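Re: the request from the purification team.
They wanted to know what the chain is likely to look like in 3D before they choose a buffer screen. I agreed to run a prediction and write the result into the notebook, where they can find it.
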Amino acid sequence: MSADGTTSDLRTYAYVTAAYWADTVTDGAVRVLVLFYFYQLGYSPLQVASLFLFYEIFGVITNLFGGWIAARWGLKSTLVGGLSLQIGALLMLGLAPAAWFVVPYVMVSQAVSGVAKDLTKMSSKSAVKMIVPPGASDVLFKWVAVLTGSKNALKGVGFFLGGLMLSTIGFRPALIILSVFVGAALIMVLVAVHGSLGQGSAKARLTQMFSNTRAVNLLSAARVFLFA
């Protein structure tokens, strides 16, 4: 296997990255759609802020347990799960009757979206290490840099897209279109990404979520506060 990665490696990387990009753009668009739509409905600033509370809390939980889930069932399973949950979260709002639009219901939909976003992110970033040839640390660094560095740019694209869609086609049609967009990414992963992206093991234990290095555990604990 070459240091630059095989054609198969590059193809898998492209599929995983495309799925991550699709979810990132969608996640940014949904944030803006929910923020402004429910503000237009007359929700108070505190109510609007509350809509995203579960999004962040469940993001923390997903980051905590996502690695263990991937260790048991493989990264492709968590990537597929993340994309599937994102579709579900979009349809929860896109197809729901207006009478269902109360704060708890929307909070639950955003909790599902938060789990979806972090499962997809964790899966995509971790999968890169699986498909880079052993010893090719320079290739790994470059591929991870592209994947990670694109996040904020695509988030901005999503913010703009969400505002544009809300202004032109409306809240519900926008969510349906976004669900189709993520659905296309899901089909691509199911059809084009072969293998499980890491061998799952039923022997994976929850204690393996923590590093043997104290400094890494402290850094991980500190990152929890970033979600606040």
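For the purification team: The helical segments are 7-40, 45-50, 53-73, 75-94, 103-131, 137-168, 171-192, 214-224.
Please add any questions underneath this entry.
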